[in-house]
Design a protein that fits this description.
Elements (H helix, E strand, L loop, with lengths): L2 H9 L6 H7 L11 E4 L4 H4 L3 H11 L6 E7 L2 E6 L1 H15 L13 E5 L14 H16 L3 E5 L7 H13 L2 H7 L1 H15 L4 H14 L3 H24 L18 H9 L4 E3 L2 E4 L9 E4 L7 H16 L3 E7 L3 H13 L8 E6 L2 E3 L14 H19 L6 H18 L7 E3 L1 H4 L7 H18 L12 H10 L2 H10 L4 H20 L7 H24 L9
Length: 560
């Protein structure tokens, strides 16, 4: 039953379409207020009356029926209570039948979304600062697919620039093929840090680095062989992390891929009279839009990030014909995205409006900002391994007889890392703390996973589900059902707002209300009809929590 649609059609307000009314109807924050609410201040301008008067008039005209059992007016809100018994039984039946498809939709059918995320740098370690972009982007990919969109996940590799010349200089001075193949990313990080320490004393090293990068660009065999070795090792190492985090990509086309695709963009800017020269560099003047100039080419003719990102956007539109292209990148790059989006718009690319910067907060250490150059980073692999170790110790202490402890500890540990990165609004800055990530107390992923395991235990004890439609509900039972009914809305809202934290928050809320129900309501030893009804609620909670965690890239466990 689509209650919003039913209510909006029954209201029948002159000058307001049923579709518009439907979009206004909300779910109140408190069940006592009702199941649905129409904020009448949204109608005040159209109906030229106060919200309080509009709500009162609509209440007096509304006729309750088999679906809506009560209508009331409170402080400018029109509140509706539904026939809870019919709603509850229908919803549970829907969830049990849908299973792992519950919450999915086809609103994205025929539409394509490109999501640019993670975008690791070749020859640099995968550190805690890369976690947010990786898990936010991965969750958005899963959420959009769940809603029926075709999704193209893109890892826009940082595989272009003078840093590779620096690495070659460092490799030739202080390393070897044998050392790199043995030490892998740790060895590449060691020599990269050493390079920057030494370059402070010998500035000519930067000239050497520029020459080596030019050799890479010019196709020099030896330089490109070293570059490809660095790239292969990096991708092999980070793939281990991606597998742990349940992250996948459809494209690894990085900056170097667009090396031969920038000239058409630059030529088009020239032809349309958008490019100017300033101190030898080529720019697009954006002063009238309140922005500093967008740099297109340096004075030596070399490209910049904006040039490559514009070429990438054009390529993605031509290749995937996206309806939307998301860039999951820290808010520090706000200006960069505003600039190149605006330049594409000025070029006449009407699809520039479909480019979205999904900004998130920065991660710093308690000791300050992270920097690969100075070696001041916390490796993501170390964080994940420590959380898995801690999960294993907790399992050993609390449930030493548990089967397959290693697999469960891995699911709990990696889940804690992902959930911790997604539990707050994405724009919040985070100061990384091992104590916070390693805490399994309170509103955490292990709490949600334990709730799923608790559901499994109840289901195992109770056996087969019988008829569950012969009981009257109490408040604890209905509180769980009302929370279950919000899941579809949460998934749609998380896609619209590019905010996976809505799903993590929902998972905590559902787990909390279920655990209260579990403590207050006997299940396995209740009368047969009551047992069946409560068992059906438990099965619906297990399905919904599993679906929520799966969309975040988190595994559930049968036991904990």
């Amino acid at each position: 039953m689509d209650y919003r649609k039913h209510i909006s059609q029954k209201l029948n307000i002159d000058g307001v379409s049923a579709e518009q009314l439907c979009s206004f109807i909300e779910i109140p924050p408190n069940n006592d207020m009702g199941d649905f609410a129409l904020p009448c201040f949204k109608l005040s301008k159209i109906l030229r009356n106060s919200p309080v008067k509009i709500a009162e008039d609509l209440k007096n005209a509304f006729v309750v029926d088999e679906y809506i059992s009560e209508c009331s007016a409170v402080n400018g809100y029109l509140n509706f209570k539904i026939n809870r018994k019919g709603f509850a039984f229908n919803l549970i039946e829907k969830i049990l039948n849908a299973g792992d498809a519950y919450g999915s939709a086809e609103i994205g059918k025929g539409k394509t979304v490109c999501i640019d995320y993670s975008s690791i740098n070749i020859a640099k370690p995968f550190h805690i600062g890369h976690l947010s972009t990786t898990v936010i982007g991965s969750a958005l990919c899963k959420i959009y697919r769940f809603l029926g969109y075709k999704v193209v996940g893109i890892n826009h590799l940082g595989d272009y620039g003078t840093q590779f010349g620096k690495l070659i200089v460092a490799y030739k001075k202080w390393s070897s093929e044998e050392q790199v193949k043995e030490g892998r990313l740790k060895e590449l990080t060691r020599i990269y840090v050493k390079y920057h320490d030494e370059a402070k004393l010998d500035p000519t090293m930067d000239d050497m680095a520029r020459r080596y990068f030019k050799l890479i660009e010019d196709g020099d065999e030896e330089s490109n062989k070293l570059f490809e070795m660095f790239k292969k090792i990096t991708l092999e190492e980070v793939d281990k992390i991606y597998k742990l985090l349940n992250v996948e990509f459809d494209s690894y086309a990085g900056e170097s891929f667009y090396n031969d695709k920038m000239a058409p963009v630059v030529n088009e800017l020239k032809e349309k009279g958008l490019m100017k020269t300033s101190d030898g560099a080529s720019i697009v003047d954006l002063e009238e839009y309140g922005m500093s100039p967008c740099l297109i080419l340096k004075s030596d003719g070399s490209s910049l990030y904006a040039t490559r990102d514009m070429a990438a956007a054009v390529y993605r539109k031509n290749t995937y014909n996206f309806d939307k292209c998301l860039y999951v990148v820290a808010y520090q790059q706000n200006l960069h995205f505003k600039q190149f989006f605006k330049v594409l718009e000025l070029m006449g690319k009407e699809w520039a409006k479909d480019l979205v910067h999904v900004a998130y907060g920065m991660v710093s250490l308690e000791s300050g900002s992270m920097s690969t150059r100075s070696g001041n980073v916390v490796l993501l692999e170390d964080v994940i391994n420590k959380t898995i170790e801690k999960a294993y110790k907790v399992i050993e202490e609390k449930n030493p007889e548990l089967q397959d402890k290693e697999t469960i500890a891995k699911a709990v540990g990696t889940g804690a890392v992902i959930f911790g990165a997604l539990c707050n609004n994405k724009i919040k800055d985070i100061v990384f703390s091992y104590d916070r990530v390693l805490s399994f107390e309170g509103e955490t992923c292990p709490y949600v996973q334990y709730t799923v395991a608790r559901c499994n235990s109840v289901i195992a004890k109770c056996g087969e589900l019988g008829d569950f439609k012969k009981v009257e509900m109490n408040d604890d039972e209905y509180a769980v059902i009302a929370e279950l009914g919000k899941f579809e809305e949460i998934i749609k809202a998380s896609a619209e707002k590019y905010e996976p934290s809505l799903v993590t928050r929902y998972a905590i809320d559902l787990a909390t209300v279920f655990n209260k129900f579990y403590m207050n309501c006997k299940i396995a030893v209740a009368e047969e009809d009551v047992k069946n009804f409560r068992l059906s609620i438990t099965k619906a909670v297990k399905i919904t929590l599993t679906n929520a965690l799966t969309l975040l890239g988190i595994e559930t466990v049968e036991q904990m």
